[in-house]
Every structure is written in C-alpha cells, then in structure tokens.
C-alpha cells in the first residue's frame, strides 16, 4: 500500500519480555504469539502498522525466546512490510529495548508499538495510530503518545501524563510519570503502548538512570527530553477504541474474548457458549 506518512516509515516492536506473569502459557509460546481469536497478537500489530503505511518493522526480541522470528520471517502483509530483528540480551527495561533498535532506525523518525498491546479502531473511524501520526506532524511535536483513560486506582500500573489544558482529542503535556502513587498521579490518562519518536530519543535514553523497578523506563527518557524543551503531544483513545494488554492471564482473557467478538466468524460461537454457560 502507499505510505500515508512519507516521514514515518519505520516501526519498532519491543517483544523481548519473558512473559513471567503468563506462565505456564508462555512456556509454549512468547506472549506476543498467543492467539487472540484466530490470529497471534503480534499479527494484529503488524497489520495495524501496515494499514498506516509502515514499510519496515524492527522486532526487538530476546535470544532466549524462540518463535517470533520463526513465525514472521523477513516479510509480512504479502511482502509489503520488511521485518528485521535486533536482540535484547538482558531485561533492562523498555527504554533499553528501544535503544537496541538505534542502528536499524538509521536516523529516521519512527513509531514504537508495544508487542503486548493491541489497539482496535472504532467502527467507521481511522486507526488511532494514524491520528497519532497526524497529531505529531501537524503540531511539529518532538514525540507523540497514545493515551487511554483509566480508573485512578489503576494508575500505578501505567505511565501517566499531565495534560496542558483539557485532555481531549490531541493535546500537549507538561509532565509524565511512570507508575505513580495515587497522590502524585497527574490525570487519568495512561500511556497506551504507541509512541512516535525523533532519533534524538536515543540520546535521552542513554542519559536515563534506572527508574521504576530498577529498569530503564522510556517514560523517564521522554520526561528528560521534555525537561529540556521537547514538545510532547498525546492522542487519547475515544469511545469504541480499545487497548488490549497481553500481560497477565486476566488481561489476556479479556483481550482474547474481545478479539473473538470482533471476528464475524468466531463471535457467534463465543456468544452461544457464554449464553449457554450463563443460563
Ligand atoms: C509499559 C510502560 C507504561 C505504559 C504500559 C502500557 O508498562 O512502561 O508507561 O503505560 O506499558 O502501554 P508495562 O506494561 O511494561 O509495565
């Protein structure tokens, strides 16, 4: 397909986590390859990226985790998308995983799509990731992030942003914090697994000390760049747009069921079984 944004041609998918919270399922397959209805999770992500015109995908994988490279090989979406691999030897955090892709990004602006987050579009609307590119380009932002509204009691599970003004549509932020305590949580907008960066982010990552959990957090790298004058924009998911997380068994089950319900061939079966069991 033709590229809708000639500036953003590359995407990085961090997919090197061990998936410990999903054991024993992740003893048989990486979490990114667990099925969501009829397809592996990462297949949905690659198709999302293809739909917005990404031509090159760099998968950050663990050398200790087999399956992803075997599944995708070096091309996807009928050969329209090239796939390459870089390795994260040890789990040092999301910022470190993104840094592994520096050479492959070759000095270009790029998108990051977390390998354990699937985002769905609302019926009749364009993909949220396309709106992210539009907000990044039209506001000449230095970085852009998709966010979703979450209950404040769940804020400790996410990176949370502090909007300038109203958190509606696309908006600029003045701060962000990784997994805050409720008393310092700046809003109900949580970072939702899609980012756009300029290549300068790699320098900020190199200057990022270990943060939450002793890991190098990309939220902290973005905060460093913001404190040094970068302008960061967010796009918030609207009604009917959802992020599904394949991090724990409960969120995986939710993701699996939701993606089954979006598949016209599978949804009648799921609905029938649930109705039978509920009656
Ligand atoms: C990561 C990010 C966090 C973000 C979340 C969902 O956390 O560090 O800022 O809110 O993904 O996109 P993790 O789920 O890896 O703990």
Question: Would you kindly provide a written description of the structure presented here, covering whatever features stand out?
Answer:
With 279 residues, this protein is an alpha/beta fold. 29% of the residues lie in helices and 26% in strands. The protein has helices at 25-28, 41-51, 68-72, 94-99, 102-105, 128-138, 201-206, 218-227, 249-261, 267-278; strands spanning 10-15, 35-36, 39-40, 56-61, 75-76, 81-87, 110-113, 117-120, 143-149, 159-163, 170-178, 189-197, 232-236, 242-245. The strands form 3 sheets. It has a 10-stranded mixed sheet. A two-stranded antiparallel ribbon has the order 2-3. The longest helix is centred in the last third of the chain and has 13 residues, at 249-261. The chain binds 1-O-phosphono-alpha-D-glucopyranose. 1-O-phosphono-alpha-D-glucopyranose (G1P) is lined by residues 94, 114, 117, 158-159, 178, 190-193, 217, 219, 247.
Provide the descriptors you would attach to this structure in a database record:
279 residues, alpha/beta, ten-stranded mixed beta sheet, binds 1-O-phosphono-alpha-D-glucopyranose
